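Hi there. Long-time user, first ticket. I'm pasting a complex I've been working with (about 778 residues overall). I'd like to know whether the download I got is complete or cut off, because the file seemed smaller than I expected. Thanks.
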Amino acid sequence: MERIEVLKTYKLYIGGKFPRTESGRYYQPAGKNGKKLGNICQSSRKDLRNSVVAARTALASWAPRDPFNRSQILYRIAEMLEGRSAQFVDELKQQGSTPTAARKEVAASIDRCIYYAGWCDKYQQTFSSVNPVASAHFNFSVYEPMGVITAIAPEQSSLLGLLGTVLPIITGGNSCIVIASETKPLCAITLAEALATSDLPGGVINILTGVRAELLPIIGSHMDINAVVASDLTDTEKSNLRAEATSNLKRTIFCKQDPAKTESPYPILATQEIKTTWHPVESSITGGSAY
Amino acid sequence: MPKKKSAPDWNYAPAPESSSQVNLAKRYDHFIGGKWTPPSNQSYFTSTNPATGKKIAEVADGSPTDVEAAVKAARAAYKGSWGKMSGRERGKYLYRIARLIQERAREFAIIETLDGGKPIREARDIDIPLAANHFFYHAGWADKLDYAFPNQKTAPLGVAGQIIPWNFPFLMAAWKIAPALATGNTVVLKPAETTPLTALKLAELIADAGLPDGVVNIVTGAGETGAAIVNHGDIDKIAFTGSTAVGKLIQKSLAHTEKRLTLELGGKAANIILDDAPIDQAVEGIVNGIYFNQGHVCCAGSRLFVQENVFDEVMWKLKRRMDSLIVGDPLDKNTDIGAINSKAQLKTIQRYIKAGIKDGGEIYQPSCDLPAKGNWCLPTVFTNVAQSSIIAQEEIFGPVLAVQTFRTVPEVIEKANNTPYGLSAGVWSDKGARLFQLTKSLQAGVVWGNTFNQFDPTSPFGGFKESGYGREGGLHGLAAYLNLEFS
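Hi, the file is complete. Here it is re-exported in full:
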């Protein structure tokens, strides 16, 4: 007798756990040849709020973590993806990719993890500065994570584009909530399963599926999100998001370059704040107080 | 603790700065396309001396028509000689401006004090020299931009609209204009309506420097003039320094455009005194933190956190130091605290002081003779301030300090970061390990360890959270005026 396949339930990824949407809603995006991809959770305002709480909690230990350790964790993500590459390829094909394109995208995605793993302990050294002030002070500027970031993953490149958006964010010590591609959500959910078995602490990356148009205004007006990163919003969506973002002056970062095609440290800096620290320097030669 | 002594009996003889070197016209027009241009609606407003209430000069009130003319001139200059000029040559113009400011520094300092009310000591030693330094520093960047952002092509943005506040009128003009020009943009700048004079004097000096017409345009006026700049369709970038409320309005009105925006907004900085701090120096830092420029400072250390076991000593020394502060004639070289910038601001500050008392704060002000005329506010400190009190929450922008205590370092980190603002902070401790724990944990763009209110053109300045975004100064500040491949 032929074996009955066990079908997968697609869920959200919040704080390292896999809940269904609290709203009980689902949608059924169509894949190749119009075949339904599955019952995908349609996240609600409450789901977003829960993910922000999870991200804020995770930030407290992720942001101050040694960059070297962050680097190893990102590398570990690549290891986990490698082991699941066949599954990603299969899902990309279900979502309409050709086999060649799917294999290429998965390979590039794994390599992208390695690329940003390497940057974790290098961007600070490359772009920080000691500033030669004209007074007896030691003065330096360093990058610090902005905090909790919401990433709107690109609609088309559902794995590589998502990672290209998210990796620079967590490389820099931020935590994030990712809104997966609405029409191609499968890889995002499988990525969550890979992340859960990597060493990435729960809550650093939270993944929501759902309807972008419904979630954007909720994101824009949330008072505990520090920035939003997106790359393929329409002009109207950008404009509304900028207006809603005034609520708490959250930063709106609209990438000029396609995150699927971008390998650069500059997207890391896009979700960093610059902190400048001053301290007096005593001079035994010229004398005078150090304060 | 010994009983608080009264102020030492040192009566300083008056040492007024002479204003004989000052050249001020009775009336100023806009500076557009290199020419002094009367306002299209023929209307002028007056700029007064806040220390005497006397009128200093009449200044053009900018209409949307005037802004239009200024933007046209700026665009023409950008498309014309300025846009085609090499970085090296642009830099030479900036060096010239820096030198001209240094040559006329005394005159500019006096006008700054007359127009804004700040002590001549500060205008002379900080505002004007630092402004000259900003031009000199940025001049050298003009031909070296390729080294600032490795592996990225850089290009200017075009025409920058810049709106600046009344607390550091000349310095803010330099902070805005110098990086914009160094990176190859042209500028339409609007100074604040209560302090337009030094920006207009800068226009004279820019003309003297031989800068091509239209590279820098200065349009004076109030909020409506600013709105005309913000909403102008042919401006590529807005740089605003001012209140968080207005900053949010600007972001909202620009939401539907691709105009670049940087905001340098309000603050409510924590100044933290740990029990191992050098207390005498810390007291100087507290005074400099909150009473510098009458507290009209976005990064002022307006929330003081003192570790409980040194609270009595710190407060005793602070009050004794406050007793020796000289409040009065800004032109007197001995003056520590000058005039409040405007009647409206004085009323705002007085309203906060009343609210602080009503919220249960204990007020202390030194006794001190104030001049009969002008806008004055005594240096004020509140103890017993609840975290929820309005004076611990909102930016007052005056010489009013709210003091709270704490027992542990985690507690003070929590309290200090419990604000929507994130511009600056200060920490006082002689133990490096404790100091760095705090400087790392405080959510602020600028953190001063064992010092406060230091500024330098090489040092990036700007805020976290609702204190705005973008940096001014240093290598990092250049990004705000450049078109880069990666946003």
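A couple of notes from our side: Chain B has a mean pLDDT of 96. Residues 294 and 388 of chain B are 24 Å apart (CA to CA).
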